[in-house]
Structures are given as C-alpha cells and as structure tokens.
Design a protein that fits this description.
Layout: H1 2-21, H2 25-50, H3 58-66, H4 71-99, H5 102-117, H6 128-139, H7 144-167, H8 175-199, H9 205-236, H10 242-245, H11 256-279, H12 290-305, H13 311-337, H14 343-370
Length: 371
C-alpha cells in the first residue's frame, strides 16, 4: 500500500513539475481548471452579488461545467444543458400542477426525466434533467417567476462559461497530433532495426513475440493519432483565438492521407513480425536467409529514421530506400529459385516487405514534396 502511494505521489509530482516547466496536457489541464473557477466566480459575482437573483447558484454551477476542453464543446454542452434544464423544469412543474403533491409529482416526473437523460444527443448533460426536476419539486419553486429566473440564470452561466473559454487562452489541441506524427517514424525505425539485428543471428519464439507486440503498439499509435486529429479539428471550430495565439507557432497537422499511409505501414510491420514469429518454431529458423532479410529491414528502418526536413536527410532516405529495394530483389530471387526450405514463410515475408517498400516510397516522395 505504501509503495503504491509513493508511486502515485511521485507521478503527481512529475505532473506538477511538467505543468510549470513545459507545455503539454498537464499545463492545459491547469489552465482549464483556473478558467472554470474564474468563470464560476464571475457568474456568482453577477448573479448572486450584483443581481441578487433568487436562484443565483445556477449561474456559477452552469458556468463551471461549460468551460470545456474545446470552444465547440462548450457551445454544444450549453445547448444541451439549456434544453435539459428547461424540459426537466417544465416536466416537474406540470407534474406538480397535476398532482398537487410533491411525492406524487416526483413519482410522475422522475421516471420521465431519467428516461430523457438517456437520450444520446444530450450526452452527459442528460443527467441534469432529473436534477432540475428535483430542484423544482424539493424546494417548491414552480411559479412562473421561478421558472423564468431558473432559465435566465442558466443562460447567464452558459454565456459566461462560453465567453471565458473562448476569450481566455482558447484551447487548441494540435500538440498531440504533432507528437504522434514524430513518434511513429522514430518508433517504427527503432523496431525495424531491432528486428534486423535479431534475425542476423538465431532468435527464439519469445523474442519474436516481443517484436510482434512492438508492432501492435505501433498500430495502436495510429489509432491514437486518428483520435488526436479529431480532437484537434474540434478544437479549431468556433475558436476565435486560434489564429492569434498558436497558429504561427505550431504548424498545421499533416493531411488525413498521412494517417492512412501509416496505417498501412504499421500493418505491414505487424505482418512481418507475425511471419517471423511463426517461422521461429521451424527447425533451424531464421528462414535460412538472414543475410538478405536483415539488411532489407535495416535499410527500411534507415528510411524512416531520416526525417528532419533537411536536404541531406532526404538524400540519405533515397539511398536507404534504394538499398532496401535491392535487398528485396535478392530475397525475391531466392524465393523464385525454389530451393528454399522455408518457402511458405519466406513467400509471406517477401510479399509483406514488398508492400512495406511500396508505402515507404510514397512516404519519401511526400517528404520531397514538402521541401
């Protein structure tokens, strides 16, 4: 127990340190937390202190939850919450007017509002439909004046929450897209080099499974990239500060075709490592051709390692790609010769590496277009 607490405290300490020393999700979370608190204080100052509204709590409560991770999400959540509060309030008021008894009104209104809360288009805000109904029924605030104030204070809190989120360091989530874009080539190159070194000698099933697990993690990274891209696209919607604050410092994310290409590349690497894992159980594995497959994979890794935008790196990428294609030609000739003992596994590897080299050619050509 004490070890777990120590590790957790150390993790929290690292997060706090990164919040103050570098930009990233920790700093973004801290900024959003401060903005939410500031929006709630401002809403209370206007509704509770200046206006002295009878239901002033609703304004800071709404503002607090509308400082969302993107401006678009703040607007969407505001619309959902206003609809939920209005419908929940009206259902509770109607039930009370019909039954003239708080308990009976709860029995009538709560099932309807809980059911309304499950409506998918209302998202997580659907939970507040029965909450709004309970406020009305528990405190007897069902007059026309009370309903009007409930709506006005909810709208005030929503307006303040949206305004604060949109005007004070409006969140833009492009950083994760760029970090994943940089990691994918680097981690893919590292794995290809590791496999090339491993098959240069004999390898076992456990080592091959480790390579395959690494390839699966690369594929998972592509999935993370797609999620990060959607998050980035959403953060640019209705964001008035994106041009002024961050666009000049952060280049735009790569086109969506980049994700599709890397989806194929990581799938080819996974197929190669799967074939190697299956071949490890063959007698005298390593496919009998380590001198051909190893330099092919090393050259393919060299292609992906050459990515910093300079002309010299691009020249080295072309040279590495040419070496990989030549090694693949020698591998294919061994398969065509028909004397290879592990021909089925070798045939799969030859096809997988050919597809990998086709996509690497596309990647290198795209780098040339960027310069």
């Amino acid at each position: 127990m004490s070890n777990a607490l120590t590790r957790e405290a150390a993790a929290v300490g690292r997060s706090v340190r990164r919040c103050f020393t570098e930009s990233g999700p920790e700093r973004d979370s801290a900024v959003q937390a401060l903005k939410a608190a500031g929006a709630a204080l401002l809403a209370w100052a206007l509704a509770g202190w200046w206006w002295n509204a009878p239901m002033a709590l609703l304004a800071p409560w709404t503002a607090l939850f509308l400082v969302q991770s993107t401006v678009y999400r703040s607007l969407l959540t505001a619309l959902q919450q206003v609809v939920v509060v209005v419908v929940g309030t009206l259902l509770a008021t109607g039930a009370l007017a019909l039954t003239h008894d708080t308990m009976a009104a709860m029995a009538l209104a709560l099932p309807l509002t809980v059911l309304l809360g499950t409506y998918a288009r209302l998202g997580t805000q659907g939970l507040y439909a029965p909450t709004a109904a309970l406020f009305v029924l528990a405190y007897g605030s069902s007059s026309g004046f009370d309903i009007l104030h409930r709506l006005l204070e909810t709208l005030l809190g929503a307006a303040i929450g949206i305004a604060v989120n949109a005007s004070v360091l409006p969140p833009v989530h492009s950083g994760r897209v760029h970090r994943l874009r940089a990691r994918l080539p680097r981690d893919s190159a590292r794995l290809l080099h590791e496999v090339a070194d491993g098959i240069g000698t004999s390898y076992d099933q456990e080592q091959a499974r480790g390579w395959y697990d690494g390839a699966v993690r690369l594929a998972d990274m592509v999935t993370e990239l797609r999620t990060a891209r959607r998050w980035s696209d959403e953060s640019h919607r209705f964001n008035p500060g994106r041009r002024l604050r961050r666009s000049a410092a952060v280049p735009p994310p790569p086109a969506a075709e980049w994700d599709f290409t890397w989806d194929r590349i990581t799938e080819h690497i996974r197929a190669i490592t799967r074939s190697l894992s299956e071949a490890a159980s063959l007698p005298e594995s390593a496919l009998g051709v380590p001198g051909l497959l190893s330099p092919l994979l090393r050259a393919a890794g060299d292609v992906l390692a050459c990515r910093n935008g300079s002309a010299d790196e691009h020249r080295r990428a072309h040279e590495a790609l040419k070496a990989a294609v030549a090694a693949h030609g020698r591998l294919a000739s061994v398969l065509a010769d028909g004397r290879q003992g592990a021909a089925p596994a070798l045939g799969g590897l030859t096809a997988d590496t050919e597809r990998l080299l086709d996509d690497l050619t596309t990647v290198v050509d795209s780098w040339d277009d960027e310069t």
